[in-house]
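> call design_seq(struct)
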């Protein structure tokens, strides 16, 4: 039976909380649903992953061995989710600007400050040119600082 990524993510929450009910609360699931996912994951792995104790659960050696891989799945999914959000929100990439010296001195400092406040991880490349050369640069592709 193949491993289910959702079950691995649930397993990470259970391991972090040490408690099925707390993990269920974080995941907006019922405790029986979390228990069922852990049971299916245990069957897929073929070894017990948790032991129950008075106040919750503990990882078995097999659970301790699986946890870093499950955390890697969680991180990879979080990274993919951030990347997709960045694409939708245009929060990555480089802003390329061509402006005359007058515009560059008078307007760009304020505009660029707002840009960097809104998109702190996105760099900006600026190029000064005469007004007649700015428009062609805008249409022919990226410009860069010279």
């Amino acid at each position: 039976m193949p491993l289910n990524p959702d079950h691995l993510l649930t397993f990470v929450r259970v391991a972090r909380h040490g408690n099925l009910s707390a993990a269920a609360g974080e995941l907006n699931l019922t405790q029986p649903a979390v228990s069922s996912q852990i049971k299916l994951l245990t069957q897929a792995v073929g070894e017990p992953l948790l032991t129950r104790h008075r106040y919750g659960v503990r990882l078995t050696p097999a659970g301790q061995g699986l946890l870093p891989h499950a955390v890697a799945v969680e991180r990879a999914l979080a990274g993919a989710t951030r990347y997709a959000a960045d694409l939708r929100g245009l929060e990555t990439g480089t802003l390329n600007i061509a402006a005359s010296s007058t515009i560059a001195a008078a307007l760009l400092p304020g505009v660029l400050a707002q840009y960097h406040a809104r998109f702190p991880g996105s760099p900006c490349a600026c190029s000064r040119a005469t007004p007649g050369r700015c428009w062609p640069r805008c249409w022919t592709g990226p410009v860069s600082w010279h």
